[in-house]
Amino acid sequence: MNIYINGEIIESRDLIFSPLSSGTAHGWGVFETIKLVEGKPVFLREHFSRLQKSCIVAGIAMKENFDSIRQSCESVIIENRLSRGFLKIMCLKRNEDSSDVVISVGEKIYGEDVYNRGLKLCYAGVLKNENSDLTYIKSTNYMENMLQIARAREKGYEEPIFINSRGELSEGAVSNIFFVKGAKIFTPSVECGLLAGIAREKAITLCRQLDMEVVQGGFAKDFYKTSDEIFITNSLMGVMPVCLFEEKIFNVGSFDITWKLNGLFNGMENTDIEIYKR
After folding, report:
1. How deeply is 222 buried, as exposed, middle or buried, from its count of CB atoms within 10 A (0-12, 13-18, 19+)?
2. Both 47 and 13 in a single domain?
3. pTM for this one?
4. Residue burial 193-218, b: 16+ Cβ < 10 Å; e: rest
5. Nearest to 235 by CA among 86, 22, 61
6. In a domain, 6, yes or no
């Protein structure tokens, strides 16, 4: 794989980081994962804006601007001849005045079969700390999330959902969660301890376009039990139906709102790609 680092395209096997930098020694970094469709990054400007904000919170000096990042992303895509998949942009702290910017690609996509059956959710085994600054940025300190995913898979589930220290629903390890009850959509508020996902914000916008009320707040652990539909979102999956939450089974084939949002989200992605090409 060819990757970008600090202005150069190199083979991934040739990549060397200093073991003394804060990025490698302390996991001091932030990142963004961006979907690729037709060889074009989806919602790149939104992702770059959030990356900048994360760098400020994390105290990381990033000198690259949007145009330079966009050009570098395009170079990595061309070098790897990738049409569908994802880009990952990492900004790793080197010292107080500099950082390492790394752009890589991957081929993970969610197939139609996954959407048609839906994903299985369970509760995570640890609490989400709504008082931590790291909760609200995409930090490279992702080990706890990855451990919870591994433990969920051992039990036959695919995505763990965190509860915060107040006993409220928070977020998934790699997703935001939504509940459909009648004509209303419910989703935990950012203050519950979650990353304000790009796809989350797009889904909220689409709900309002459908004249559906979106309620953001703190919801108890058993809130899912009275839901008509549940879906989760992130930048790679878009809007994903949920077929199982703990013991409650959902028939995703009978979902209405989730599938409407899924189609509209795909349309929003395509519109962004067309704008990007101009």
Report:
1. exposed
2. yes
3. 0.92
4. bbbebbbbebbbebbeeeebebeeeb
5. 86
6. yes
**Number of domains the chain is built from:** 2
CATH of the domain at 62: 3.30.470.10
The residue behind tokens 């995505």 is: 159
Among 42, 74, 106, give the residue marking a domain's end.
106
| Local structure of 230: helix, strand or coil | strand
The verdict on residue 278 lying in a domain is no
Residue 62, Cβ neighbours under 10 Å: how many? 21
Q: Are 58 and 93 in contact (CB under 8 A)?
A: yes
When pLDDT is cut at 50, 70 and 90, the band that residue 68 belongs to is very high
| CA pair distance 70, 65, nearest whole angstrom | 9
* Structural domain of 87: 2-106
**CA-based nearest residue to 68, from 103, 93, 97:** 103
Q: What is the CATH number of the domain that holds 239?
A: 3.20.10.10
SS (H, E, C) 182-205: CCEEEEECHHHCCCCCHHHHHHHH
Q: Is 264 a member of any domain?
A: yes
The answer to the question of residue 39 being in a domain is yes
- For 106-135, write each residue's pLDDT tens digit: 988 899 999 999 999 999 999 999 999 999
* Tens-place pLDDT, residues 205-230: 999 999 999 999 999 999 999 999 99
